[in-house]
Amino acid sequence: MTVRAPQGTRTDETLLVVRAGEGDEEAFEVLVRRHSPAMLQLAIRLLGDRADAEDAVQDAFVSAWRKLPEFRRDAAFSTWLHRIVTNRCLNRLRSRRPAAALDTVPEQAAPDHQASPARAVESRAAADALARAMADLSPEQRVCWVLREMQGLSYESIADTVGISLQAVRGRVFRARRSLTEAMSAWR
């Protein structure tokens, strides 16, 4: 039986989650297709490496499939999935050697053909400086900052996703902003 419900409605999502929790692989496949792009984007931003991010997202979806019968639906499926992906990424970040890769910022788009070579070099240097500054953040600060500033999640959603208090989220985002501002002060 093919699952064909209007995409994007809350009822549709709930139905898919219930059916997937009952073992319906097609329903879970729809959820994976629907949420994969956002989860991959989140993982890339957190890990800075596409291959690592793809592995983390794949692990997260496998874990979600296994744990779906236990999902209580007291939060949105996307929030629950954000939490799983974030935890997978945090585990990977914590297991890395202290010196993180400098390519943690996504590759910049090709410069405009009318842009000067000096401007292109300056832009690349600024991106490298940001990558180093991001690598210097603790994994916990980095996750909170990315979820807030790049994913646009509310502090409450971040607290729910990461499993910490609202006050802890605010503190981590504040410290991350302060560190990044100090590190990037030469680029203002």
UniProtKB/TrEMBL annotation:
Top-level taxon of the source organism: Bacteria
Alphabetized GO MF terms: DNA binding; sigma factor activity
Residues annotated as domain RNA polymerase sigma-70 region: 31-97
Keyword line: DNA-binding, Sigma factor, Transcription, Transcription regulation
InterPro entries reported in the protein's UniProt record: RNA_pol_sigma-70-like, RNA_pol_sigma-70_dom, RNA_pol_sigma70_r2, RNA_pol_sigma70_r4_t2, RNA_pol_sigma_r2, RNA_pol_sigma_r3/r4-like, WH-like_DNA-bd_sf
GO BP term, example: DNA-templated transcription initiation
Span of domain RNA polymerase sigma factor 70 region 4 type: 128-180
SUPFAM superfamilies: Sigma2 domain of RNA polymerase sigma factors, Sigma3 and sigma4 domains of RNA polymerase sigma factors
Pfam families given in the database record: Sigma70_r2, Sigma70_r4_2
PANTHER family noted in UniProt: RNA POLYMERASE ECF-TYPE SIGMA FACTO, RNA POLYMERASE SIGMA FACTOR HI_1459-RELATED
Similarity annotation: Belongs to the sigma-70 factor family. ECF subfamily.
Name of protein: RNA polymerase subunit sigma-70
